[in-house]
Amino acid sequence: MKKLISIFLICVLCIVPMTRGTYIPISEDMEEVETEGVIYFWYTDPELVDYVDNAAFSFYGETGIRVVPTLVSGLEYLEVIQQGSLHTENGPDVYLIENESIEKAVLSGLAIPVTDEAGVLTTDHFPQVALEAASYNNKIMGYPLNYETAVFLYNETYLEQVAKAAIQAEKDRQAAEDATQALENGATPESEITQAVDENGEVTEEALKAKMEEILPTSMIGILEFANNYDPVDGMDAFFKWDVSDVFFSYGFAGSYLNVGGPCGDDKAQVNLYNSDAMYALSVYQDFNQFFSMESEEIDYETIVEEFKQGKIMFTLADTGIVEELEKAKQEETFPYEYGISNIEMLNTTLQSQPLSVTNVVVVNGYSTEREAAELFAKYLTCDYVTNLYSRSGSLSAYQVENPEYEALTDVRSCYEGSVSLPKIVEAGNYWILAEICYTDIWEGEDVNAALYALASKVHEQIFGEEAFIGHIDTPEIVESYIQSE
C-alpha cells in the first residue's frame, strides 16, 4: 500500500511545478534504480515544502529509496505521530521536531538514538549548541536541520556617520590642544588623530573602519552607553528599539543565568533560576525601559522591522529571517542603507549575554521498521543536500555551509553558536510562557526579585511536583555607568 501511494505522489509531483527554486524531474536512470523501500517523512513548516520535495527526489536518485514527504498540522504534533505510528500504515519513519520536544518524543517511544555511521555529528560540522539541542540523556537523538535565534541588527550607514562625526570631534579637540601646546612650546606635534584624515581633510577609510569597530556596542550596556555618548543621526527616532512583548528577543539579557536542565536542557539536577546574576541582568533589563521608553502592548515585530527599514531605528533585535527580508528590500530599492549583524556576547564587562534559540531536529521514529533508511534520509536532508536549504526555503542550516549567499549569514551563525536552547524537560513544557510572563512583569515595573522568585518557584513545582523552598537572595546593587551619571 505504501509503495502505491508513493508512486502516485511522485507522478503528481512530476506534473505540479515547484513553488520555489528549480524543479528536479525523475530521470530514466532514476526509474531503473531498484527500489529498496519506502519511507515517510513528516514535518510542519510549509516554508520547507520545496526543499523537502527536491531532497526526496534527489535522495531517490542516489539510493533508490522512495521518500513520501507529508506536511502536517503542528497542533498536537507528537500525539498525531503516535496515532499514525500505532494505528495506520503511513505513520512517519522519520520526522522533523523542535528540540524542546525531544524528551517527550523519547518517553513516548517516538525517538531513538541515531547511529551516525558517517561520523558527521561532531563540532567539525555542527556547532555545539546544535548537538546539545539534538541530545538527550547523553545520546544524540537526531540530525539538526535548521534554527532560529535572535540577532543584534544595526544600521551600518548610520554607524559610519556617527564614526565620522566622532573622528571630526576628536580632530577639532586635538587641534585646540595642539594650538595651546604650540603657543606654550613653539611646536605643533603630529597626533594620531591628524593621521586619521587625508590631505583634503577627509577621514581615511582605514581610520573610519577602525572607529566603527571601536564604537560598535559589544554588550547590552554598551548599547545604552552608545546612546548616551553620541548624537542621533538625522532621520532617527530611536537608538535602540525592539519587540519587548516577545521574550524570544529579550531573553538574552539574562539567558546565561536562567538554567533549566543544563546545556542539553534535560538534566533535572541542573535547575537554577533564582540567582544573583540573573537578578542583576533582569534589573538592567528593567532599566532599559526607563532609557528607551517602550510600551510592550504598543509594539510588534513587523512594525519594528518596518521602522528599521525606514531608518528610524539604529539598533534592534531581530530573527534570522531579517537577512532575506533586508536583501530583498535592497534589491527593490526600498532600503537605502547598509546593515550589519553582530553577536552581543556580554551584558556588561563581566556578565554574559546569550540569546534564545530553537533548533529543528530530524529524528527516527522508534516504531519504524525502516530505521536504517530513515536515518540515511535524515543525514541526507541535514548534511548532504543542505547547501540548497537557504535558496529553497530561507531557512539557515545548522550544518556548516561554506560560502553562504550573504556575508551577514556568517554573523547570524555566530549569534546561534552563542545561544542557549529551550529546556527539553517535559514538566517544564510551558517554560517559554512562564519566562515571557516574568520578563513582561519586570519590564512593566514589577519588583525584579519577586518576579524571578515566582518564576523559579513555579518551574520547580512543575518539575518536582512540590513547592520549592528557595532561600531569599538580596537584590544586587546595579553599579553601571548609567547609574553613576544620574
How would you describe this protein?
This protein is of the alpha/beta class and 486 residues long. The chain has a domain at 2-151 and 357-409: D-Maltodextrin-Binding Protein, domain 2, CATH 3.40.190. It is built from 19 helices and 14 strands. Strands 1, 2, 3, 6, 7, 10, 11, 12, 13 and 14 form a ten-stranded mixed beta sheet that branches. A two-stranded antiparallel sheet has the order 4-5. The protein has a two-stranded antiparallel sheet with strand order 8-9. A hairpin with a 2-residue loop joins β4 and β5 (139-140). α7 packs across α8 and α17 (431-443) packs antiparallel against α18 (448-464). The longest helix has 30 residues, at 156-185.
Brief summary of the model shown:
The protein is built from 19 helices and 14 strands. With 486 residues, it is of the alpha/beta class. The strands form three sheets. Strands 1, 2, 3, 6, 7, 10, 11, 12, 13 and 14 form a ten-stranded mixed β-sheet that branches. The protein has a two-stranded antiparallel sheet with strand order 4-5.
